C-alpha cells in the first residue's frame, strides 16, 4: 500500500487530531509541512482549492477534513480501532460539537489572547474564521471564556465517574475530539493553566492522551508528494448511492464546498456519493489525475 502522507503544520489543532490517531494506530507516515497561510500552491494542486489543514494523501487519493481522514484510517488500518464500543456514529455526531461549540470559542480566545501570533497569520485568519467578529474580539473575550469553560466542564463530567477514556478503557476518536481544543488552549490561550485548574478528571485524562504519541513520521518534500500523486492510481471504487442527495449520476461535473469557513468550491467529476462521503475525480497539471474525498456531513454538493 502507498504511504500515508500528512500535509500539515505543527501548531495546527486539527492536524493534532490526525497525528494522535496515527499514534493510537502506531502507524508510519510521511510529513509534508505546509504554509500556515495562503497561498499553498502544492496543497491546492492536490485538493483542487481546499486549503484547510490537515489533508491526508495516500497515492493519488486525497482526503480532506479530519472527519473523512479518521474514517479512512480506520478502513485501511482497522486495529487498534479508533471507535471502541461501536462508537463510530457517536463520534461523528460528537465532531459537530467539538469542531464548533468547543473549538470556535477556543479559536477566538487564541486569536484574542495570544500576543505572539505573527501579523500575517492574524490577517489571514481574520478573513478565514468567519465565525469570529474580529472588530469586537476584545469585548467578546468574557463571553468566549464562558463558552469555552462550559465545554471544559462537560469534558470533566464525561470522565468524573473514574473511567479512563470517554467510551471506556480504550482511547479513541471521541477522546481525540474532546482533547484537541484543550491541546489548542494549552498552546495558545494566555491563561490556560487557570482555565484548566480544578478539573481533576480532565487533567488526569489529558496526561493519558499525551501518551498516545504520533506514530513514526519522516519528512517528505511537497514536490515529492506531488510526484507520488502523479505516479499513482486512485484506489477509490465508483459508487453513487441511489438514496444519496442530491440525486446525481456518476461522472456529473460537481462542486464540493465546505458549509462553514474556508468555503472554496472544489470542482470535478462525481465518483462516490453516499450519506457519509463524497469523492470527485479531477486532473491537475502538477498532481495528475487524483480523487479528492470529503465527508458528506458539512459539505455542499452541487452540479457545476
Ligand atoms: N473541518 C476541517 C477544519 C480544519 C481547520 O479549520 N483547520 C484550520 C487549522 S487547525 C485551518 O485550516 N486553518 C487555516 C489554514 O491552515 O490555512 C477538519 O476537520 O479538518
Short description:
With 304 residues, the protein is α/β, with parallel strands linked by helices.
Total number of distinct structural domains: 2
Number of strands: 11
In what range is the share of β-strand residues?
15-25%
Mean pLDDT: 97
State the main characteristics.
304 residues; alpha/beta; Glutaredoxin; Glutathione S-transferase Yfyf (Class Pi), Chain A, domain 2; 2 domains; eleven-stranded mixed sheet; 43% helix; globular; binds glutathione
Overview of this structure, please?
Helix content is 43%, strand content 20%. The model has no long low-confidence stretch (mean pLDDT 97). The protein has two domains: 4-80 and 217-303, Glutaredoxin (3-Layer(aba) Sandwich); 87-210, Up-down Bundle (Glutathione S-transferase Yfyf (Class Pi), Chain A, domain 2). β9 (277-284) and β10 form a beta hairpin. Strands 1, 2, 3, 4, 5, 6, 7, 8, 9, 10 and 11 form an eleven-stranded mixed beta sheet that branches. α1 crosses α7. It is globular, with a radius of gyration of 19 Å. By secondary structure, it is of the alpha/beta class. The two termini are 33 Å apart. The chain is built from ten helices and eleven strands. The structure holds glutathione. Glutathione is lined by residues 12-14, 36, 51-53, 65-67, 99, 128. The site of glutathione (GSH) has 12 residues, from α1 and α3.
Give me the secondary-structure topology:
Layout: E1 4-8, H1 13-24, E2 28-33, H2 41-47, E3 55-58, E4 61-64, H3 66-76, H4 88-113, H5 119-128, H6 137-159, H7 173-188, H8 192-196, H9 200-210, E5 216-219, H10 222-230, E6 239-240, E7 253-258, E8 266-273, E9 277-284, E10 288-295, E11 299-303
Glutathione binds at residues 12-14, 36, 51-53, 65-67, 99, 128.
